[in-house]
Amino acid sequence: MTSNDYVIQTQALSKRYGRKLALDHLDLRVPRGRIHAVVGANGAGKSTLFRILLGFLPPTAGSAQILGRDSQRLTPDDRGRIGFVNEEHTLPGWMRISAVIDMHRRQYKRWNEQAFQSVLGHYHVLPEQKVAQLSRGERAGFNLALALAQGPELLVLDEPTLGLDVVAKRAFLESLMYSNATDDCTVIYCSHQMEEIERVADNLIILERGRLMHMSAPDDFCARVTHWVADIPFKGPDPQTVPGLLQLQRLDGLHHYLVLDQDDDFAEFLRASGARSVQSMPVSLDRAVNGFLAKNHAAPAQAQHA
């Protein structure tokens, strides 16, 4: 793939706040097309990465490109190619909805009225209302409609459903998934909500301590993590000797092992360790990601790519 095939490229990207290293020589390439989910624990460096990519913050070292441009030298035309929706859904509260729409229509040369109306149709937003009169869910939907209507090549969504109730979250996700406007742009979706990631993401990017830990399709990542339940009548094997161990829990006399990259040989390992019975259980994306992050947060590992 050439550099034009990537919407985001970073090379040895680092950002330091005093003694804290928020991004640690991050090498990341995100290909054009589809919806890419960025996940990680608090402090993984996600917000810092976005701020650098959007040109709001300079890196300490390394480089970052977005849509083939140096993120620190973005022009107004470059910014017009990037849509951005954050968790605050910041819009001028004193302005009427009609005035905000007119302002955006004038500002963006590629304005797509059909895309705007198709998204806004999911929400009860009236032209005469002021932004301050909208609910948080309505502001989120209005922001998404504005971002997609500008005809972006790249849409960055940073925790867009944070603080929304269940109904508002569903409306937001449906308006994103069923908008034809997303067919022509790449979406970067950052969220702590794994059920959202499962619904929308084609590619899963896991960051931890400012480094890339994993990138693959969500289903491929889930396939790497397995949950085993073993009836072991005594203490069981030393956790240090358990291959691929992410988490160990003892519940109701049973040992629960969450492990990475283990096949049926793991069952034989448990039987050899004294297990009277062994059972494999399905793992959700939420369980797989949280187990992986918990392990790597305690003891950072090398980046793993599918």
From TrEMBL:
Keywords: ATP-binding, Nodulation, Nucleotide-binding, Transport
Pfam families (UniProt xref): ABC_tran
PROSITE patterns: ABC_TRANSPORTER_2
Name of the protein: ABC transporter ATP binding protein
Species annotation: Lysobacter dokdonensis DS-58
Alphabetical list of InterPro entries matching this protein: AAA+_ATPase, ABC_transporter-like_ATP-bd, ABC_transporter_ATP-binding, P-loop_NTPase
SMART domains linked: AAA
GO function term, MF aspect, one: ATP hydrolysis activity
Family to which this protein belongs: Belongs to the ABC transporter superfamily.
Keyword Transport (UniProt): yes
